[in-house]
Amino acid sequence: MAEREARHGGGVPADPRGVLRKGRAFLDLFWDIAKPEQEVRLAATENLLRHLRDGGEDEELKYALRRLVEGLGATREAARPGFSLALAQVLQAFEEIPLCSVLEQIQEKHNLEKVKKKLVRNAAFGNFFGVMALFQSGRLIKDQKALLESIQLLQQLAHHQTHLRDLPSKTLVDILSEVPETVFEEVLFGILQADLTSAFKSPENLHLLLVGMQKFPGVLKPKKLKKLFGSPTIVNEENIPRLVELLESAAKSEKKDKKLPSVGLDLLQVSLKEGAFELFWSEAVENGLFKEKSGPVSYMCYRLLGSALPLLSVDQLQMVLKGRVMQHYGEHVVTTQLPDRFKFAPEMEAYVDKFLTSCDDPERQLAVMIGFSTLTNQGYPVVPSVWRVVRHLQPVALQKYIDWLKDMFLKPDLGCCLDFSTNRQKQNQENKNIAQHKIARLRKWIIHRLMSIVESPVKKEESLVMDISRFCFFHAFFETKKKTSQIPETNALMSEPLDEQAHSLAANYFFGLLQTLNTLTVLGDTAEAAALREKHIHGVTADGKLWIFHLVEYASELLSSEKYVKAVKPFTKEQRDAWERSLQSVKNLQKKKSKSDSAKLFAFQQLLLLMAIHLFKNPSETMDLLSDLLNCTERAFSKEPKKKKTENAEPEWVEVIVEILLSLLAQPSLLIRRISNSVFGRICPNLTKKGLQLILDVLDPYQDQDEESAVVVVEESEKEKKSAQDTDDDESEDSSDDGDTEEENDSEDEKNEEVDEDFRSQLINVLQAGNAVGEDESDEELDDEAMMALDKSISALFAEQQKRIQAKKDEKDRIRKEKILRRDFKIKVLDLIEVFLSKQPENPLVFDIIEPLLQVIEQCMSSDSDKQEIDFLQKTAHIFTNSLCRAKQYCKRVDVLQDDLHTFVERLVKKACKHTDSSVALYYFSASLYLLKVLKGNVSDKSPALPVPLSKKQTDTIPQACQLLSTGCLDVERVTLIYQQALTQFLSKRNSALTSSMFLDLFTRFPIMCKPLIDILVKSITAGARQHQQAQACLLLQKVLPLRELKLSTTKEEWEELIRESISQVTESLKVADKLRVKAEKEKVARSLELLNFLLKTVTQQKLHVELMELDKVLVALNQQESIGKSARLDSLYWNVMRWLNYTKPKKEKTANKPVQEAEPLKRKKKGFLPETKKLCQDSRLCAASSLPSSPRPADHHAPGSWTCRAEAEQRTQELGCFCSAFGFLPAGGSVLHHMGKGKGNVMLVAKGCVCPWLFMCLCNVFSQMA
């Protein structure tokens, strides 16, 4: 051990030659350490340590240290940290290596005084990363001498700020934070005293002092601080100006990193420790840093605010959150709404989120939430109403925050808000009641904030959710007349009553809250709640009752307390009677306990409650629907026997429900849409054909839309009301842009407006009546009275014309809006179709949906291509494909419908054949396959026989044969005829909408159809309309023949005859193949060869008796055409086929020598690194120079050549090989090859088994210059 330390300390240079003889594996580790990929660097470091530990010698360790020290100053940036980390790991693993000796090597190798000027940067980084390696090894703190020298080296490096910036000072701080107090006092304080004394001269020195004060309070006491710079504290009135300058400098230096300077956070902590935080914040931050309106300085203040939150008390938080920093932050958030502006709000949200996560004090949490909620822009808080940080609040803090929100809603206190207005808002202020405007905006935010708390994932109890829901409902539809303890919402009176618009806004938000409650998971920790959550039941409380039911009960309580509360829109007697009937019906339904009708009972309760609570919002529009629903409820659950249906009989209750749901879907409410889908999903087992037809009539593109238009108009008015209520005043700044757009549209309409001949004739008549235009030209001018009369006439005429133009525009706009709303209504109705298909896939009514969906798809394919139309088409196609055609379940009771379904299949296939659009024909064809699946999957009362009798051997070999070839209710002969006609048309008609993928789907899904249709495929190989159809016939036949079911359905003789006939048809097709000039002809030959490959493989493997002489002749003749050889694909397919006929592909002969061209002069070799061949034969050259024999090492070696033509290169290569073999440079079996490159004269020679690559290269140079 002592000898090893002496060797390392002596600085004896390592002998690399011994290391090199070990092999390149060890040396390659140092190359990998310098790679830019971090994973490669780490793996190389681990391998190096393993190699040195497992048997590394002293020479290897010395070499490793030398290489690692050299790499610290590498030019590549990724290499420096790699070598630094590797050096740190080596020093940590081998503690016997003295750190001082390594530091000496670093300073000697990267000497800043002796290095050239252009290499100063690399030397500076070499020293810096060397110190980093010593520090990361974990041994620097233990070695006081090395620690002292490292600190001094870092102090020297601090002067090279142009290269290292503040890296030395940061590293010095990191080292200082790890040093024990005794070591700092005894060793480091002396050399750091100068830096500590000049703390107020640079941010780095101030940071060093602040870290020392926090780390070593026993050393840097106030007395010692006073000796250092004349003040016992850092934060005082005298030092404030200098601190502001240093913070500004630090902020600008961290501009690119977008993070808080470390000196700022440490200064904040020291100010708290010294009890001078209020002075620091008010004087240094708010009155000092904000004097200079600089972006980096402002962002540093915002980061200081966010970082200070976990460190402050409640009083300090309140002070900070009401100061100028918060106000500036609010202005920044409001004025940086454009997408290309830097937004600090996400970063501030992260600070608040981190604080609320780590803070356990509810009072401090509440102070922060209230502070940010009172930062308002004209009354509207800056933070979003759906601020997600609320999820970290403690239950106590959450409850207090909700109480504060409700108090602010009832008694808005603008005085406690930190309110501001932007410059544009100040300029646009009109003579209006600013206070009322601010209160309205604040209340709007609060009601949305309360609603979002219910939606947030914060842990909450049912009582809290119910409290918020009652509060929102009460102030949306009721007002307090007198306080009462029975209704908690009446205990606090409003300081400013709500106007009609505020009530309407609160009502809209309340129905949004209902939507949240409808999808809310069950709350609570009880066993009942856990059981409901396991069943994935939503929208109910722990007792199993709907949230909306509790709110209806609360509304009933309010309506019965007329002495204490009054409704904003009082009910009429008829409306009140409907309300009472609805509640009584719900209670009656809850008393019924029938497992068979449980879904039906729940659906009626949900719908009754929804319609009842909608009486508060739209009483006049809801009354008719509610009345129909109540009557329908009585009929649906009445015990009277059903009457026989007559023409004038009343519709079934389910049909009435469907009409009500369609009416509800016309309203722009997500809550209504989801409840309608939920209700329909529960009643769809009772759906009748007429009820389904009501839904399909809405989707019918060819039916008159009169009734639908009436629904649409209602929906449009509702949307306009909602948009008018939800529009925020402060967001009206973009209205000018919208106005400009409308004006541009108007101008475009005017340009496109055709000239109105009636208007032109009227204008001419007016001018003629005023004598302004006449047949006889005269120089007489009109008098003033005539001119005035003429002006009035012209003005009146133009005014009337403008009204007509505007009326036309309004009519166009109305039609366009109605079209959009009608399409939106149809998209909603599609939800009902999707629900029915998913809930009732086995219902026979599914068959009635097929054609209406196909009509929608067909009509959308040929209509406008706007986004809404595309969405409608995509949704319809998705439902048709996934919910219908690919459904795993289908109707199992089609015995009565067999004939109708077969007729339906025929009708669908014929429409697919007649269509001109392949994409539409695909949907018709897919529908026919769905019906085939239904027919085949049903078991008929009559047990059908198999279409093909199976032998006993086949049945015993494959037990599933009967199941695979069963037909169910399918009439194979009838269906076969249908698809034979379709397949014949596809292969005989030039422009057919059918495609091969359709029939391939038919064959793979229904193999029973293969045998009846395969004869058409075989004949069409030659009888197809064109080459394309013949190629498709070959393709389909190639896919069909390997099917196992086809083999099962045929006898051995039939199978052999099928193969024979197929080969014969392909032979005849190849006979007429011309010179393959047309792409279609090439495709036909390629498909024929692919089919032949399978056929010949089958003949060979199954040993079938098929005559192949004619085919042999045709194929041999086909090879005579040059087109086969020119196409790589055809050539490969051709010889794959010929392989089965015992032909082998001949090798291509070498081309004849081309005339020798003049050789280009040799290119001058580039200077630089040695090629790998010279590196590998380094030992051979050394041995030759010292007259020592070199041991032969046969290997493959490369050398360049410079011949201009292939023939000359081949000749010279042969001569070179003979020469090398004759003189023993190549062993037995060795050879010389050449590879021609793309460039002129670019030849590479390869010596196989060369024992002396250096002499081989010399010979290559000699032969390259020979002409």
UniProtKB/TrEMBL annotation:
Any single Pfam family the record assigns to this protein: DNA_pol_phi
Gene Ontology BP, a term: regulation of DNA-templated transcription
Subcellular location as annotated: Nucleus
Main location: nucleus
Residue spans of biased composition, Basic and acidic residues class: 716-725
GO molecular function, one term: DNA binding
InterPro entries: ARM-type_fold, DNA_pol_V/MYBBP1A
Family note: Belongs to the MYBBP1A family.
Name of the protein: MYB binding protein 1a
Source organism of the structure: Gallus gallus (Chicken)
Recorded name of the encoding gene: MYBBP1A
